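Researcher: Please predict.
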Amino acid sequence: MIFYLSLALIFWAFVLIAEHRKDLHQLLVAAVIIAFVMLAGFRWETGYDWIAYEQALTAAPSLLHLSFTHLPDAVKPMEPLFVILLSTIKTFGGTMQALYLIVALFNGIAFYIFVRHCRASVIFVFAIYFCWVYLLAQMALIRQSIALSFLMLSLIRLDKSKHSSALALFFIAIGFQSSVLMFLPIFLTKVYKKIIAFEIPILLALVAFYLSGISVFDMLGFAAEHAHFRFVAEKFQHYFSLGPSPKSIGTTIYLLINIFSFLYFSKIANISSRLEKSLMLSILLTIILEAVFWQFPVLWVRAHYFVVIAQAILLYKTWETIRPLHRAVQLAAIFALSIVALVKPLLNEAALPYFPYQSNMRFIYTNDQGDGRKRLEDYNLMASERECALVKCRLDILSK
């Protein structure tokens, strides 16, 4: 944990330095983007689902033999554009390290372009992003990270009124991870003013629904049975097979944080551009998903990976309107929350695949391959046993 915590403290130190030493700003931005790319791009057997991607890359056919009607089982669940990426890498003799580096480089560049277009501080946004979602978004969920990068590029084109290219980039995002479809409402910026006019009733209704405990679990099962598209049906069936998750104090607190941030930005930040309205709508979308689909964190957490960026950008935008003392209090609060967001999951046994962080750079000088594979296999075994126990518990309850 010390490694990741030390990095977080360094990035937050960069935030303070950048505010007081403008001459070092560009150098610090470069350091942040290099760290963004290198941490994910040069990792070795660190993270959650790299074994699945390793198997997919091994099984993927070359471009000359690629046929979407006869895909290997390891690749079948994956979206078409990601399959093409795997086939391209394999055709040119690339390995998992090539996949890591290509994805990290693309995501780092997209992150930089998006934050700069929003006229926010790359250093500040990354300090928050690193603490809240980087370890998952960039070191586990490869397809999701690529899709969100294309989503950000799509929003830039929307902001420039380039609707055709915005739509094309959005469809490319879907081609890497179909769950990005949930972000479609954030493009409907013309309804933003109407939403703000009724924000309190809307948020109160969502809170009431969340507290009511009404379940949509059976509805998802119905959708899984009656979806007309096989790929969509399989996605619904996957979520349904995981079973409903109970509410927790952590998820409730996160819902309240999102509600507070939406209200805070609507009152404090100057939301004028189309892109800023999309960022606000992404927060509202996350609130809706968590309040309505609270039993399915695997669904609404996917929105979380983007909304953290949106919130960080909007926080920076508030600096244009608030006083220095307000900014200092805000910065201290966000720093404290971010460190807690980083440390809390690292104290859990689920962080086993991340300790210690392994880089392929070390293997240039040593043959020590590390124990990353064993750690991930041990974690998967624990997760499988826990899931089996949970399923047994549910069956026992149903049988009574």
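Model: Residues 57 and 86 are 6 Å apart (CA to CA).
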